[in-house]
Structure formats: C-alpha cells, structure tokens
Amino acid sequence: MRGGGLVISSLADSLVRGVESVGDRVSETFFEPVVRLGVTGLARSGKTVFITSLVANLLDRGRMPGLVAQQEGRINAAYLQPQPDDTVPRFDYESHLSALTGPQPHWPDSTRAVSELRLSFKVRPAGLLAGLQGPRTVHLDIVDYPGEWLLDLALLEKTYDDWSRETLERIAQRPTAADFLAQIKAVDSADPHDEPTAQALARGFADYLTAARDAGFYDCTPGRFLLPGDLAGSPVLTFAPLPVEGASRRRSLHREMERRFEAYKSQW
Ligand SMILES: Nc1nc2c(ncn2[C@@H]2O[C@H](COP(=O)(O)OP(=O)(O)OP(=O)(O)O)[C@@H](O)[C@H]2O)c(=O)[nH]1
Ligand SMILES: [Mg+2]
Which of 62, 80, 146, 160 sits CB 3.0–4.6 Å from 258 for a disulfide? Predict the structure, then answer.
C-alpha cells in the first residue's frame, strides 16, 4: 500500500493526541479512553491487509519513526486484549500476519464479515501533566466492517418505486446488466405474485450486482445481496427492481416486491 506508512503514523499521532486531551481534564484522570476505528471498503479493497499492517506497526513501533509519541519515548507498551463486544468475532490478527510474513508469504483469505480487535497502549502524558501523572491506558478498538453493508444507508429514504426507477435507469446501458434486463422484460409487475418468479428475479439481480461490483461499480444496493450472511434465501433478500406504473395492486408481484423491500429496510 503506497503511502501506508504515512497514513499509519498520522492515525497513530492523532490517537495519542486524543489521549492527552482527555488527560487534560482532571475529572477524567482515571478514565481509560477508547478510540473506535472503523475500517470499511468493498470486498477485496484491502481492509484486512491494512488493519494487519497497522496493528503490526503499532505493536512494533521501531518501524514508526514518524510517530511523535514514539520519538519522545512515551509509549511504554502496546498489547492485544480481549475485545469488548462479545457478539462480534475477533479480527484474526495472528493468522493474517502469519499469512503475510510466513515462510511462504501469501495474501490473507477473504474475510467477508465484521470483526474487531482491541489494541491497548500504556502512554506517558506529555506537557504540563508529564510530571503529575503516571502512564495511562488507552484502548484502540479496530472494526473491520464490510462496505457492502454501508451502501444501504442510501436506501432508507427511498420507496420501492423510487429505488426501482433509479436503479433501472442507472443500469440500462451496462453490459453486466443485460441478462437481468432481459429477464424483467419477460414479466409484468402487475401479474399475480408467484414465488419461483420472485426467486428467479432476485437471483438474476444478485448476479448482476456481483458482476457490477467486480467491474468496479459502487452503487450496488442492496448490499446484503452481495454479502447475505445468515439471511441467504429469506424473503427480505428475495426482491428485485421492476418497471412499475401506478400504485401496486393486491397480490401482485409489484406489491410483494414492495413489501419485501420495506421489510429489508426495516430489518437492516
Ligand atoms: N500490492 C498490494 N496489494 C494489496 C495490498 N493490500 C491488499 N492488496 C490486494 O488486495 C487483496 C484484498 O486485500 P484484503 O485486505 O484481503 O481485502 P479486504 O477488503 O479485507 O477483502 P474482503 O475480506 O474480501 O472483504 C489482497 O489479496 C491483495 O491481492 C497492498 O498493500 N499492496
Ligand atoms: Mg477482509
């Protein structure tokens, strides 16, 4: 990652500055500050490699001459600790690092789900407080967060009809969408809902989204179609944009797609 060292130094500097500004407020002297750092991006964008290298550099700061607190010898220790969120898997730092630095170096496996790691530092305050206070502990909680799940924030304000119209306009000229567009030409959204049709449309749309993402497009909503996790196959993931006109009629494909779109929004 070009420029990665620079990014890591300035991140680490602002982390340490964050500790000091907390330390300046005497009432918070015994409070252990927590900095949460979210690292997000689409699949294969380099989240896991970035976090692994950030943590390796922070644990072995000999390689971080640009880090001011390190230059001043104020970081007494850095160590990994159990992370605070019991329901989030731990970021598997050791495996990722050994993939990168082992005898046969290779890129770490794709991770595709959220994970978290806590790195704690013992830092000696600088400035006025230097003589008054012993080292303090600060925690850095790093979260590896799939970008696919963030794409959906833009959906929240849309109705099914808006989303369908915008999506279909946007993808009309994309070669990756040709199969899906042919598929929806063959259905009428006013037809009665039937599940095999809905399933086939959703599958066609998910295939298009995957191809679009792989071709570098970032407008791939709903993000859970790309990364279904434990929802795979459930009705909230079984919808697709359709050309729609007017209000949806009872029991139509349009009405059912609309209902599932709303369920997706409210559950995610
Ligand atoms: N040259 C170079 N390639 C990198 C670097 N970081 C990542 N890559 C490449 O990008 C791929 C994906 O990196 P990851 O860190 O696994 O990406 P990710 O965002 O965690 O991917 P997912 O877990 O699949 O979402 C790697 O397998 C490498 O091929 C880097 O610093 N330099
Ligand atoms: Mg990853």
Answer: 160
